[in-house]
Amino acid sequence: MNIKSVNGKNVVYLEGEINAETGAAVKTDINALLDKGSAVVLSFKSVVYMNSSGLREIIDLFKTANKNKKEISLCDMNADIREMFSFTGLDKVFKIFDTEAQALG
Amino acid sequence: MGVKYEIKNGVLTAHINPEHDLEDIQEVAKIVENHGEVILIRVDMHRCSYIQSRFLAGLVSVKKLAMVRKITIELLNVNDHITQVLQSTNLQKLFVLKDDYSSYPLEALCEKFYDTEKAAIVSEYLSANYDDDIKNKLIEIIHAGNPLLVEYALLTMGRAQDYDNIEIYRKELEANEASVKAAAILVLGWVGDTQSKERLYSYLTSKEINVPEAAAASIALLSDDTDSEKLAKYLRDEDARIRVVAIYALSLINDTKAFEYLAEAIKEEKEEQVRIQLAKKIALFKDERAGRILLELLDDGSIPLREAAASGLARKNNGEFTDILVDKVADNDNWVGFFAAKSLAGIEDERVIKKLEGFYDSVEQNVKLAIIEVLGKCKGVDAAFLLSKIEDENEDIRKEALNSLSLMHAPVALTAAMKLYNTDNSWLVRYKAVNIILEQKPLGYDTLLRARLKDETNKYILEHIIGEIGE
C-alpha cells in the first residue's frame, strides 16, 4: 500500500486483493492516517480481487471516519469493483469518483 | 430592510428576498464595492420562484464589478424557471449555478425527496450533516409512512451509519412497497445487522422489483462461513432471475465454497444469460481453476458467452494461458480466434506480439480487427505494422488501426490523421482522424479543420468540428 500526499489529502493506493485479512490491515493503517489528517482518498486502481469481507472492512473504516467527522472518498475502480459497490447499494454510501484527480477536487 | 448577507474568509454570501429582490441585488453591488477582501460572491436564490428583468440588470451590474476584480459569481439554488430565463437571455454562462442545501430549512430539504433528480444529493447532504434534528425529522417521516419519503429517509439513515435505529429498519422489512422494503434490506446490510440475515433469505425469492437483489447483496455483506452453502440452493431455482441473484451473492462472498458452487453451476446451467453471468463472476475468483473454466468456455457455442470468457481471461491476464490463447487466435472457428485475440489485451511479450502480427494475413476479417484492437493495448507494438493497415480496403480496419496507433504511438497517429481527415472515402475513418487531431491539437489545427468545413459532407463530422472550434 503506497501513500501520497496531495494538497493536504492522503491518497492511499490499495493493491491486489482486499479481503478480511488485508482489509483489516488497510483499516488500521488508514485509521492511523485519519488521526493525523482530515481526508483520505482510496485509489482502487491496482485492486484485482475484492470480496464482501473486504467490503465490510471498508464500511467499518467509513463508520469510524464518519464518527470522527473525517472524509473518505474512493476512486479509480475497475468495472467489476464498481459493480460490487452498486450491487450492494454502497455507491450511495461512499463518495466514488472515476479518477484520482476528481477525488482530489 | 437590507439584504441578508455574511462575509467569511473572503466569501460573500447574500440571501435574496423575493419581496425586495431588486433592492437586494443592488445592495450586493454596493457591498462588493465596499469590501475589497471579497474573492467569491454567492447569491442565494432559494426563496425566489421568479425574477424580474430589472433583477437581471442588477445581476449583470454585479457581474461587471466582479469581472474587474476577477471575482467568480455563484448563483445558488436557482429553480428551473429562473434557469430557463438565464438560458434564454444567454446569461447563464456568465455565472456558476450551484445547489447549496445549507440554505434550506430541514422541512424543505426533506420535501426534495419527491424530486427524483435531487433526492440522492439531498440524502447525501443530510447524511454528511447528520445530527439529532435530522435524525428526528427522518424518523418522523418514516412514521408518517409516505413510501417515497420513507425510502429516502431510510437510505439517509443508513448512509449516516445510524446504528441506534436498527429496529426501525427491521420494521420496514414489512412495508407494502417494494422500494421501501429494498431500502430497509440494503440499510440492514450496510449497518451490519447480522441478526436480520436469516430473515433476509425469505426475500431472495420475492417477485418484487429490486427486493431479491437487495437481499442477495445484504446477505453477502452479512455472510459467514455457512452462507455459500445456503445460497447455492438458489442456483437451482426455476426462476432465472433468482439464479442470477444467487450468482452475484456468491461472487461477492468469493470463498472457496462459493467458487465450487459456481463452477458446478456452469456445467449444468442451460440459459445463456445466466451462463454469461456465471462466466463473468467466475472470472472474479482468484482460484486457479477459474482460468481453466474460462478457457474451455472459449469453445462454447454461444458468442456472448465466449465474449464473456475472453473478457474474463483478459482480466486475469496472468500469463498462465498465454501460449494456448495465442494458438487459438488461428483457430478454424473465427469467433474462437476473435475472442482469443481479445483476451490477450495488455500483453507486453514481444514474442506474442510478433506471433499475432504473423497470424494477421491468414485470419478472417473479425480476427484481423481483434488483433489490431489488441495491439493498441500492448506496450512494445511496432508502429510500422499498424501504419501499414491504414491503407487497407476495409474501413473498419483503417479506423481501428488509426485508433490503436493513437493509443500506442500518438505522434505517428497524428501524422496519419492529418493525411486521412480529408482524403479517406469513409466518414468513419475521417471522423476518427478528426478526433485524433482535436485530441492532440497540433499548431494551427483549428485553421486546418475550419478549412475542412467547406468540403466535408458528413453531418456528424461537421457537428464534431463545429462543437469543438465553432463555425
Rg from alpha-carbon coordinates of chain B:
30 Å
Strand order, sheet with most strands of chain B: 1-2-3-4-5
Structural class of chain B: mainly alpha
Number of helices, counting only DSSP H or I runs of 4 residues or more of chain A: 4
Judged by helices, strands and strand pairing, the structural class of chain A is alpha/beta
Task: Set down the secondary structure blueprint.
The complex is a heterodimer of chains A (105) and B (471).
Chain A: E1 2-6, E2 9-18, H1 20-36, E3 39-50, H2 52-67, E4 71-75, H3 79-87, E5 95-97, H4 100-104
Parallel strand pairs in A: 2-3, 3-4, 4-5
Antiparallel strand pairs in A: 1-2
Chain B: E1 4-8, E2 11-15, H1 21-34, E3 40-44, H2 53-68, E4 72-76, H3 80-88, E5 96-98, H4 106-111, H5 119-128, H6 132-144, H7 147-159, H8 166-171, H9 178-190, H10 197-200, H11 211-221, H12 227-232, H13 240-253, H14 256-268, H15 272-282, H16 289-297, H17 303-316, H18 322-328, H19 334-342, H20 350-359, H21 365-375, H22 383-388, H23 395-408, H24 410-420, H25 427-440, H26 445-452, H27 459-469
Parallel strand pairs in B: 2-3, 3-4, 4-5
Antiparallel strand pairs in B: 1-2
Helix pairs in contact in B: 1-2, 5-7, 6-7, 7-9, 9-11, 11-13, 13-14, 13-15, 14-15, 15-17, 16-17, 17-19, 18-19, 19-21, 21-23, 23-24, 23-25, 24-25, 25-27
